[in-house]
Design brief:
With about 210 residues, this protein is an alpha+beta fold. The protein contains eight helices and four strands, in the order ααααβαβαβαβα.
């Protein structure tokens, strides 16, 4: 592959493996990416669609050998438990940490409109997720904090709650109990195949509903 093909292939690999988008949506995204980078003369639609279909078939084949509960299923359960403990827990919240913080503030605003103030939050974003689908050295980093908080001790208490729930769901946790470092789940393997009938993990309205019940 050329350098540009490798760039597009990495995007294909990530979008298929993350399992948040349908194949049709991925094909649309990839063609936009090719056009935005002015790769049209070098990379054809046929090549891109072939790579997408190949990666999807590989993932389907692998998924038949996954052991349940997968790391992904256990993480979903952990995040649900955190929401039940009044901690906002968001899946795939934007592309960067600042994106995730923006999403959290939006959820917090809705909670407060319904008379609820959270005790903290946690999330991972798309760049974190890219590490979790790395076949060589997978891991997942979880950001945590409390909205409108500047007290490190309060931040650490949120981190302790998040770490405890993760451990209770069978995860190894690497964290020095400091306010400035994210929680790491080493050897975390993200395993998800897109299914239009499955729960939408990025429906943050569901998080709000769960926390105001």
């Amino acid at each position: 592959m050329t350098e540009n093909e490798e760039f597009i292939y990495e995007s294909i690999f990530n979008q298929v493996r993350m399992g948040f988008l349908s194949i049709d949506d991925i094909k649309e995204n990839i063609m936009e990416e090719i056009e935005d980078n002015e790769f049209e003369e070098e990379i054809s639609e046929a090549w891109a669609f072939e790579k997408i279909d190949e990666e999807y078939q590989k993932l389907l084949t692998e998924s038949k050998h996954w052991k349940s509960p997968t790391d992904t299923e256990r993480l979903i359960n952990a995040f649900d438990e955190l929401c039940d403990q009044n901690i906002v827990a968001l899946h795939n919240a934007g592309y960067t940490t600042s994106d995730g913080e923006y999403e959290v503030v939006e959820v917090e605003r809705e909670l407060r409109e319904n008379g609820v103030t959270s005790d903290g939050y946690c999330f991972y974003h798309e760049q974190d997720l890219a590490r979790a689908i790395d076949p060589e050295n997978p891991s997942l980093y979880i950001a945590f904090q409390k909205v409108d908080n500047s007290d490190p001790a309060t931040t650490i208490e949120v981190g302790k709650k998040v770490a405890e729930v993760l451990r209770n769901n069978g995860f190894e946790v690497k964290w020095e109990e400091t306010a400035s470092r994210k929680i790491e789940i080493p050897n975390f393997r993200w395993q998800q195949v897109y299914n239009e009938d499955s729960r939408d993990l990025q429906d943050y309205g569901e998080v709000v509903e769960r926390m105001i019940e």
